[in-house]
Write a structure and sequence with these properties.
The chain has 14 helices and eleven strands. The chain has 398 residues and is α/β, with parallel strands linked by helices.
C-alpha cells in the first residue's frame, strides 16, 4: 500500500462532506437510512486506528525529563517523547477509534501520591495531584519516572469516552485496550510499591467500567458467545455481531503484554468462559477464550495476521513503537499493519508531531475515519458504510 494514501483526517472529512453535498443537489438525508448495510457488515470487517498509551501527555517536566533520558536510555519505550491530546479530543478531532489505558490498582487511594524519585532533582516528593489520593484504579505508564496522565482516575478516562460516545451515537464500535500494570521493571518502586493485582481488583475493574457504561453501551464476551460452548467457537462459526448490533457501543480488551498469561488466567478465575466479565483478553488460537489476538510485528507477521483475520479472530497490531519509525519517517510497518487486515492498529502519532519527523503520522487509508477491512470486508464495502462523519451525531442512525 503506498504511503501517500494516508492523507490528513481533515482532508478526508472535507472530501466526504463535498461528495455528500454535491451528489445531486438534493438533501435525502432525512429519508435515507444512515447506514443501509449495517445488517450485513460485521464488527470484524472494520479497520480502525488508535493510540498507544492514550493518556500519555509526554515526559515529565524538566529537570525530571533529563534524569529519565539519562538513566533509562536503555529502554526507548520509556524515553521516547510522544504526546497525546485528552481522550475526548482524540476521538473528536483525530479520528481515533481505539484507545489504550494502563491501569494500576489502588483500592484505598494514595499509593502513588508520593514519588520519592523526585527528591533526586530537589523537588517535593508529594505530587499534590488530588486524584491520586482518591480510592480507585489509576491510569499512568510507570510509577515515578513516567507517571504523567491526562486522566489519572480510570473512571475519569471512561467518562471522557462516554461523553463523546453519547454525543456521537452513530460511531463505529470503539475498542478500549486495558493493560494491567503491576510489574516494576525499572526498580523505581523501592519506596513506592506497585500493588500486585488480586482477584478482587479484577472485579473492581469490571465494576468501574460498569459504573460508567450501561449494558446497552457495552459489547461483552457474553454478547458475542451467545449459546455457543466457547467464545472461540462463537467467533469462528457464527462470527462477530453486525454493525447494526454494535454501532455506538464500546468493547474492552485486555493486553496481557507482560507477565505472560498470568493476568488473563487470573481474570478468568471464577469465570471460566468469561461469563459476566467485561473484557476480552488477548489470547491464542485454540484457547476457549480466543476471540482477540495480538500480533504486534506487522511486517514479519503480515501473512499470519491475514490468516487469523480470515478465520474470524479480531487482531490488534502496531503501526510503530518506541517512536523509532516516527523519527525516521519509516512507513513500512505502518503500511504493513493496514495491509495485514489488522482490525485495531495502534500508533503514538495519529497526527504530525514536533517530537518526530514532520511527515510521519497514521490514519486509516481512505478512512472517514474508520474503514473497510482489506482482508475481511466484502468488495462492495465503502468507508462511509463503516462510519460517515455526516451521520455521527444523528440519533436516528439506525
Amino acid at each position: 500500500m503506498p504511503s501517500d494514501t494516508l492523507r490528513p483526517l481533515s482532508a478526508l472529512l472535507l472530501c466526504t462532506a463535498l461528495i455528500t453535498a454535491c451528489s445531486d443537489g438534493r438533501d435525502d438525508s432525512a429519508a435515507a437510512p444512515a447506514y443501509p448495510n449495517d445488517q450485513e457488515l460485521r464488527l470484524n470487517q472494520i479497520q480502525i486506528m488508535g493510540t498507544h498509551n492514550s493518556y500519555h501527555p509526554g515526559l515529565p517536566q524538566e529537570p525530571m525529563a533529563t534524569v529519565i533520558r539519562e538513566q533509562y536510555a536503555f529502554y526507548p519505550g520509556l524515553v521516547g517523547d510522544y504526546r497525546h491530546r485528552p481522550l475526548y479530543e482524540q476521538l473528536d478531532e483525530l479520528g481515533v477509534r481505539h484507545l489504550e489505558l494502563d491501569v494500576n490498582a489502588d483500592p484505598e487511594g494514595g499509593n502513588f501520591s508520593d514519588q520519592p524519585l523526585r527528591a533526586t532533582v530537589g523537588a517535593d516528593t508529594a505530587t499534590g495531584i488530588p486524584e491520586l489520593s482518591q480510592p480507585g484504579i489509576k491510569v499512568f505508564h510507570v510509577p515515578q519516572i513516567d507517571a504523567e496522565s491526562t486522566c489519572y482516575l480510570f473512571t475519569e478516562c471512561l467518562k471522557q469516552i462516554k461523553q463523546w460516545s453519547d454525543e456521537n451515537p452513530g460511531h463505529v464500535p470503539l475498542i478500549v485496550m486495558i493493560e494491567i500494570k503491576d510489574i516494576d521493571f525499572f526498580q523505581t518502586a523501592a519506596y513506592l510499591p506497585l500493588m500486585a493485582w488480586q482477584l478482587e481488583d479484577y472485579d473492581r475493574l469490571d465494576e468501574e467500567i460498569r459504573s460508567v457504561f450501561p449494558p446497552s453501551q457495552l459489547i461483552t464476551p457474553d454478547d458475542v458467545r451467545g449459546d455457543y460452548a466457547t467464545l472461540e467457537q462463537a467467533v469462528l462459526e457464527a462470527g462477530w455481531p453486525t454493525l447494526a448490533d454494535s454501532r455506538g457501543r464500546i468493547m474492552f480488551t485486555m493486553c496481557n503484554c507482560f507477565g505472560e498469561d498470568r493476568r488473563r488466567i487470573d481474570y478468568e478465575i471464577g469465570h471460566p468462559n468469561l461469563e459476566d466479565r467485561v473484557l476480552f483478553p488477548h489470547s491464542a488460537p485454540g484457547n476457549p477464550d480466543a476471540a482477540v489476538i495480538s500480533r504486534e510485528e506487522a511486517e514479519t507477521d503480515l501473512e499470519e495476521i491475514q490468516r487469523l483475520a480470515r478465520l474470524g479472530y479480531l487482531v490488534r497490531t502496531r503501526a510503530d513503537a518506541n517512536t523509532r519509525e516516527a523519527l525516521e519517517n519509516n512507513t513500512r510497518r505502518r503500511d504493513a499493519a493496514f495491509e495485514s487486515g489488522g482490525h485495531y492498529i495502534s500508533t503514538d502519532f495519529p497526527e504530525p508531531s514536533e517530537t518526530a519527523h514532520p511527515d510521519y503520522f497514521v490514519q486509516v487509508p481512505n478512512g472517514t475515519p474508520a474503514g473497510c477491512n482489506p482482508v475481511t470486508a466484502p468488495d462492495w464495502c465503502r468507508p462511509e458504510d463503516i462510519e460517515n462523519p455526516e451521520r455521527l451525531k444523528r440519533g436516528d442512525y439506525r
